[in-house]
Structure formats: C-alpha cells, structure tokens
Design brief:
Keywords: Ribonucleoprotein, Ribosome biogenesis, rRNA processing. Involved in ribosome biogenesis; more specifically in 18S rRNA pseudouridylation and in cleavage of pre-rRNA. Belongs to the NOP10 family. This protein is of the alpha+beta class. It has a domain of about 35 residues. Helix content is about 25%, strand content about 15%. A three-stranded antiparallel sheet has the order 2-1-3, with no helix packed on it. The model has no long low-confidence stretch (mean pLDDT about 85).
C-alpha cells in the first residue's frame, strides 16, 4: 500500500526542511515528489523465512 503523503525529492538541496505534499511534484520548487514512508519489509531479509515459520506455528 502506497502512502498518499509524499516528500520533495530535492528537499536537502532546495529547502531548509522536508516539504510534504499530496501531489506528484513539489509545490515550492517543482521537483518530483517521492513516497515518504519506508518500505514495510526488506526484500533482502535473510531471516524472513524463520519469522514466517514461527508465525504459522503460533496460530
């Protein structure tokens, strides 16, 4: 699920603090806006299969 809240991709260079928006571009500088939320999981998780197995056993 993607977040509706986005942050300016160039905020470190163009702004003093992060600029959040709901549109696909920054309202201040016009740069692309990117998803502000981190991924809910790491696709390179080396222990994921063990965690899923424990979750299945505890049900």
């Amino acid at each position: 699920m993607k977040s509706d809240i986005r942050v300016c991709s160039a905020w470190r260079d163009a702004h003093d603090r992060p600029v959040y928006t709901l549109s696909s571009t920054c309202p201040d500088c016009g740069a692309d806006a990117e998803n502000s939320a981190p991924a809910p999981f790491d696709p390179e998780d080396s222990h994921g299969k063990y965690r899923r197995a424990l979750k299945r056993r505890s049900r």
